[in-house]
Design a protein that fits this description.
The structure holds 2 protein chains of 2 kinds.
Chain A lengths: L2 H14 L1 H11 L3 H19 L8 H14 L20 E3 L6 H17 L2 H11 L4 H8 L3 H18 L6
Helix pairs in contact in A: 2-3, 2-4, 3-4, 4-6, 6-8, 7-8
Chain B lengths: L2 H18 E3 L1 H6 L8 H29 L4 H20 L14 H42 L7 H47 L11
Classes of the chains: A mainly alpha, B mainly alpha.
């Protein structure tokens, strides 16, 4: 297949799923430089595993799996690039400023990510999949743990949430 | 805060992001996506190559030893070098060949990364020493073949070789002390991550939660 066409298709997939990738990036990396690095790593892995994409999987499930795997095993602070690639000049994801209610919205978003950042890498994956609308069974399949274990973990996250955050006002 | 409030925040954020995020296609277009192998796989590929090279090095030593079989002062060190390389090859047989890791679950993938990191951290300790031993055992044969220097019939050369060997071994031991500490740290980190994954995987104390 023509590489140019492949890349167009790839960009289309990224565009359609930009929210998923963006949220995983922000959930795993609070530092902008780390995030840029993870962004690049995710793009490479998505591109390379796209060749082996199995249509029996839902595209979004495959995307979550690739992105979460890369994010969990990402060790930017300790490892230098060993493959000769350089860091990106800019970010792939450009985010526009909000036109209204900026402060309130920012505060709410900050609250959301503050909580997610408190979790370890694997529990982050659980909550991201749960919040992304995956059922316990789907989450269990993607992660490779039992459905009841997913239930237990979500219950614990729920308790942690109750303990650490007071009720928010809309 | 309740979980449903968190979900509401997540959805609200997602909704806003849809309009706010744009993709810089130029950067993706310019990324050499085909030319790089990322993170874990690059280390895995290097290790698989290194393992196979150990077998090649072992065969080189065997072929050299066979060519000077009767001259034990040459053939015996070469066989020792071959055995060391063969041992290294066998030690690395447990390295898994690169495969499509995204067809397995996240926990399985993460476990394989940890096991690989533990394996490399463990074997790095011996790999450097083995390469040095192999080079030292090959050196007398190489000097004779390439420069026509017969170390064993020339006392000053032989003394130089013995001194050189001792210095090399001394430096290896000295260097190892420092490097082993780094490898041990890598090993401990990988072990700790694996423990974390195994703990995560383990079904423990189920608590009531209605499945959707």
């Amino acid at each position: 297949m023509d590489t140019t066409l492949d890349k167009k298709e790839f960009i289309r997939i990224i565009k359609e799923n930009k929210r998923i990738i963006y949220k995983i990036l922000y959930s795993y990396c609070s530092d902008p430089d780390d995030r840029k690095d993870l962004e690049q790593e995710i793009m490479i892995q998505l591109w390379q595993s796209l060749k082996n994409y199995d249509s029996n999987y839902r595209l979004s499930t495959w995307l979550y799996k690739v992105c979460l795997n890369v994010a969990i095993s990402h060790y930017r602070k300790e490892k230098k690039h060993t493959d000769g690639r350089e860091s990106l000049d800019g970010s792939i994801f450009k985010i526009a400023e909000e036109s209204q209610d900026v402060e309130i919205a920012s505060e709410r978003t900050r609250l959301l990510y503050t909580f997610i950042h408190q979790l370890d890498k694997l529990n982050k994956a659980v909550i991201i999949l749960h919040l992304g609308g995956h059922s316990h069974k789907e989450t269990a399949d993607i992660l490779g743990i039992s459905e009841s274990n997913v239930g237990t973990k979500i219950h614990r996250i729920k308790n942690l949430l109750k303990q650490n955050f007071s009720s928010i006002t809309n | 805060m309740e979980l449903n409030e968190l979900k509401a925040l997540w959805d609200e954020d997602a909704k806003k992001l849809n309009d706010r995020i744009s993709i810089n296609e130029k950067i993706i277009g310019e990324m050499p996506l085909d030319k790089v192998v990322s993170g874990f796989l690059v280390f895995l590929n290097i290790s698989v190559w290194g393992r196979n090279l150990a077998l090649v090095y072992s065969l080189i030593s065997v072929v050299c030893a066979l060519s000077v079989l009767g001259e034990y002062q040459y053939s015996i060190p070469l066989f020792i070098g071959a055995a060391a390389m063969l041992w290294s090859f066998v030690q690395h047989l447990s390295i898994e060949e690169p495969k499509d890791y995204f067809k397995i679950s996240i926990v399985e993938f993460q476990k394989s990364i940890c096991r690989f990191r533990m394996h490399t951290a463990n074997s790095k300790k011996y790999d450097t020493s083995i390469v040095i031993v192999w080079l030292l055992t090959l050196m007398p044969f190489g000097l004779r073949k390439i420069f026509g220097i017969d170390l064993y019939s020339n006392t000053p050369y032989l003394i130089t070789l013995v001194v050189f060997d001792f210095v090399a071994i001394f430096l290896t031991v000295l260097f190892s002390q420092y490097v082993y500490r780094l490898y041990d740290r890598e090993l401990k980190e990988a072990e700790s991550h694996l423990t974390e994954i195994l703990e995560f995987e383990k079904p423990s104390n189920p608590e009531p939660e209605t499945t959707r």
